[in-house]
Design goal:
By secondary structure, the chain is α+β, with helices and mostly antiparallel strands. 64% of the residues lie in helices and 10% in strands. The protein folds into 2 domains: 212 residues, no CATH class; 73 residues, Alpha-Beta Plaits (2-Layer Sandwich), CATH 3.30.70. The protein is built from 11 helices and 4 strands.
C-alpha cells in the first residue's frame, strides 16, 4: 500500500459517521438559507435595498417584470449554475450549490407570502437605516453559515470564481465590481439614498459573513525573542499554563544567537504575558499576532484552554 492509499484509507469514515456529517451539514446550510432569506424579505425587499449580488438584482428585475423575488433568484441562478457546472467542477460543484440555491429561493418565496400576514405592522421598521443595518447582519450571518459548511447560494460568486480562475484577478475585486454595479443600477432605478444604504448593508454583510465563517478571534500568538529562554519558558509553562516551542535564531544585523519562543495565549491574558516578560527580560522582543483557531498538540503542548 503506497502513501496515497494509506492517507486515503485514514480519511475514509464509517457509513454512519458520513451520514451524520452529511445530515448536520445539510441542516446548517438550510438554516443559513433561512436566515439570509429572512433578512432579505424583512429588510431589503420593503425598501428596495439592492445590496449587490443576485438578491439585489432580483429586486430590480422583480419590479421590472412583475415576478416575485424568489422566482427571479432561481431563474437568474439557472444559467449561472450551468456556467459553474462547466467551469468550476461539474457534478462536485453542482451538488454543493444547487440545494442551497433552491432552498434560498424557496425560503424567500415562503417568507414573501407569510410575513405580511404574520407580522403586524409589516415592514417591522420604518427606519431605512435600521433596515439596511439588519439586512446586512442577517444576510451576512446566513451566507456565512452557508459558506462555512461548504455550499453557496450561487449568484455573483460563480462568475467571480470563473474570472479568477482564468485571469488570476483577485476575487475580492471581482466581487467589489459586480456588487457595486448592482448597487449603482439600483441607485439609477430607485434613488441614490437607497444606493448609499445598500452599500452600507453590503459592508455589514461582509463583516458578519466573516464572523459566521470564522467566529471571533479569542486567541493570540506570541513570539518572544530573548536572552533568558529558560526563565521565560518556566514562566510560560508554570505561571501561565501554556505550552511553548523553542528554537535558536540568529539576528540578521547583530549576528547574535538568541532563543525564540512561540506559544498561544488567550486575548484576555495578553497583558499578563506582557507584564511577565517585562519583568524577566525587559530587552526581549515580543510580537503578538491574531489567530482564528488552534487545536491539538503533541505530548503536553497546550494550544488552547480546556
Amino acid at each position: 500500500m503506497n502513501t496515497r492509499q494509506k492517507i486515503k484509507k485514514k480519511l475514509e469514515l464509517p457509513l454512519a459517521t458520513r451520514i451524520r456529517r452529511f445530515t448536520f451539514r445539510t441542516i446548517m446550510v438550510l438554516m443559513g438559507c433561512a436566515i439570509a432569506a429572512l433578512g432579505f424579505v424583512l429588510f431589503q425587499v420593503p425598501y428596495n435595498i439592492t445590496a449587490g449580488g443576485i438578491s439585489g438584482l432580483a429586486i430590480i428585475l422583480s419590479d421590472t417584470f412583475g415576478l416575485s423575488e424568489g422566482i427571479v433568484i432561481w431563474l437568474v441562478n439557472i444559467p449561472l449554475l450551468m456556467l459553474g457546472f462547466v467551469y468550476l467542477g461539474r457534478w462536485r460543484f453542482l451538488s454543493s450549490s444547487i440545494m442551497a440555491v433552491f432552498a434560498f429561493s424557496a425560503f424567500v418565496e415562503l417568507f414573501l407570502n407569510i410575513m405580511p400576514g404574520l407580522l403586524a405592522p409589516y415592514p417591522i421598521t420604518h427606519d431605512k437605516f435600521l433596515a439596511s443595518l439588519y439586512a446586512g447582519v442577517l444576510f451576512g450571518l446566513g451566507s456565512g453559515i452557508i459558506f462555512r459548511f461548504g455550499s453557496t447560494i450561487g449568484g455573483t460568486s460563480i462568475p467571480a470564481r470563473i474570472i479568477h480562475n482564468f485571469t488570476g484577478y483577485p476575487m475580492s475585486q471581482v466581487y467589489l465590481f459586480t456588487d457595486l454595479g448592482v448597487i449603482c443600477l439600483g441607485g439609477l432605478v430607485y434613488n441614490w439614498e437607497m444606493a448609499l444604504l445598500a452599500l452600507f448593508s453590503l459592508v455589514m454583510n461582509g463583516l458578519f459573513s466573516d464572523f459566521a465563517m470564522e467566529g471571533s478571534s479569542q486567541l493570540r500568538t506570541s513570539i518572544i525573542i530573548t536572552k533568558k529562554p529558560e526563565q521565560v519558558r518556566y514562566a510560560l509553562v508554570n505561571e501561565m499554563q501554556r505550552g511553548v516551542t523553542m528554537w535558536e535564531v540568529t539576528g540578521g544585523y547583530s549576528k547574535e544567537v538568541r532563543t525564540m519562543l512561540y506559544c498561544t495565549v488567550r486575548r484576555s491574558r495578553v497583558s499578563d504575558l506582557r507584564f511577565m516578560i517585562s519583568q524577566i527580560d525587559p530587552d526581549a522582543l515580543v510580537v503578538i499576532g491574531v489567530v482564528q483557531q488552534a487545536w491539538g498538540g503533541y505530548g503536553n503542548l497546550k494550544l488552547t484552554d480546556n
